[in-house]
Amino acid sequence: MNKHYDVVIVGGAVIGSAVAYFLAANPDFDGSVLIVERDPTFRTASTSLSGSAIRTQFSNPVNVRIGLFGVSFIKAFAETMEVDGDKPDLGFHEGGYLFLANTPEGVKTLRENHEVQVACGADVALMGPDELKAAFPHLNVDDLTLGSYGRSNEGWFSNTGLMDGFRAKARSLGADFVADEVVAIGREGGKVTTVTLKSGAVVEAGTIVNASGPRAALTAKMAGLDVPIEPRKRTMFVFDAANSPEGTATVNGGRLPLMIDPTGVFCRPEGRYFLCGAAPVDDPAVPFDDFEPRYEEFEDIIWPALATRSTAFEAIKVINQWAGHYDFNVLDHNLIVGRHPEVQNFIYANGFSGHGLQQSPAAGRAVSELITYGEFRAIDLSEVGYERVIENRPFLEKAVI
């Protein structure tokens, strides 16, 4: 580890590693990069505990374009991230997403979202009840009015594979990683200058990138700044179905999509099992070390919704569960990517609110562009910059799960 780096990234999970990769891989960037990661096991990182899916079905064009780039990057990941002949396979399962609606408001939202998605080039189809039943025979469609199905460029993949691939490639291109914790950030007026590590080392920094996930507010506070991010707990359940409907679809080779029920409960295949979850009824901020699953959510919220939606889900058994943290943006549940307007060499890459894994390729590229060129180039992320936090101007996205 050197005493000075052009860019110091605080946080080494998928967002920080993506930023490091895109900087190191950019021929127009000739600086030095250091990632500081407090827990190199990533045991409780949001990346490691994620449901690991990607979609293009959003309501805002920015998020749709982020998803489209992300899936194209994931499809080419093995070749792009090759290091010494090792090509990381993310096991991308292109199962699609299926949003279901049963109210006039829900139908209106799906139709409006569909117009945006198609205009951006997403491969999404609207389906009435009869079409839904024909495509997915196990579903109870009696109460449904409309569905929105991603026919391609949506699915799920290896979460740690994405992170590890970014990190290995960035290292091979010259980025440095250190297992340590940032405990202080030096600042002189409108400029951050150093990071002090728990080990006692002080590193000079030309630019600091906050990629601290749920701890983003702690990192910002060390620089005398704020960001409206807090940890929110989400419990994931894996269940076995006595009469699994996987393979019964008449589209996509029989593969079932990730289904989002009108209740907000989601469910998707996971090998021979299924993965599911739901937003909790009460959703307070939690301590950084609270990873106790909310076991009651399965019986109280998830199972009743799934059993109503499909007789195939009446007889199911939980075989595993875990809890992870969203880096929850309390302003608008969307990413914050950009410079602080008063401290220009402090860059936020925070607040993904459950979308960090799928948005990491676009976010990493955007931060690298901001550092290298002083502007966004491939996708203009100005709408999700920090200025909207100061102005209390939410970024509208209706398709938040």
UniProtKB/TrEMBL annotation:
Protein name in the entry: FAD-dependent oxidoreductase
GO cellular component, one term: cytoplasm
A molecular-function term among this protein's GO annotations: oxidoreductase activity
Residues that span the membrane, as ranges: 7-24
A Pfam family this chain is assigned to: DAO
Keywords, sorted A to Z: Membrane, Oxidoreductase, Transmembrane, Transmembrane helix
InterPro entries listed in its UniProt record: FAD-dep_OxRdtase, FAD/NAD-bd_sf
SUPFAM superfamilies recorded: FAD/NAD(P)-binding domain
FAD dependent oxidoreductase domain boundaries: 6-370
The species this protein was found in: Acuticoccus sediminis
GO BP: mitochondrial respiratory chain complex I assembly
